[in-house]
Design goal:
By secondary structure, this protein is of the alpha/beta class. The protein is 29% helix and 24% strand. The protein is built from seven helices and ten strands. Strands 1, 4, 5, 6, 7, 8, 9 and 10 form an eight-stranded mixed beta sheet that branches. Strand 2 and strand 3 form a beta hairpin. The chain is globular. The two termini are 22 Å apart.
Length: 201
Amino acid sequence: MTNAQGITVVILAGGHGSRMGSPKASLLLNGRSLLHHVLDAVAPIADQVIVVRSALYPLPPIDQTNVKVLVDEAPGEGPLRALATAFSHTRSKHVVAVGCDMPFLNPILMSRLASLIDGYDAAVPIVEGRQQPLHAAYRTAAASIAADDALRRGERRVSALLTQLHVREVERREWIATDPTARSFFNINNPEDLALAASLR
């Protein structure tokens, strides 16, 4: 697989991991940080990677030359603020946004999402009836404006961003062949999730 599409991937890595006892990006899964598992997953498709970290926590060392690290100066305001930071610092027409706590990301599925965005502002998978805004592709210009507008209204939820965008919902029947186990959407929120992830590797 090549990164011929010129995809920019945004990784949100500012979660403080209150239920884990330490920041999520640095948590170890089978000897590697969660952030590095995600960096490995996106490497086949990403021309550029933007990692948005909290001003409160350092990241594990990153040696990839195509990775830009941005600092979320308002870490208490949630992932929407972090996304807005990323949108405002890229010249890419489209971005794929994911969390750093998703160790089983599928690069083919992410590439597929990017290919579905033409004519829309976002391509968002539907999993068990729910939109997955932190595993989605966005048209940068529209998403940046919508994120800034939502923040000015006091919104902090990423779902508030989607209400202002022309969204292409990607139903299960469209992604299940690429990821039959749906592991791409597995994220780590507590020690039990981390233990389960270790057993799945």
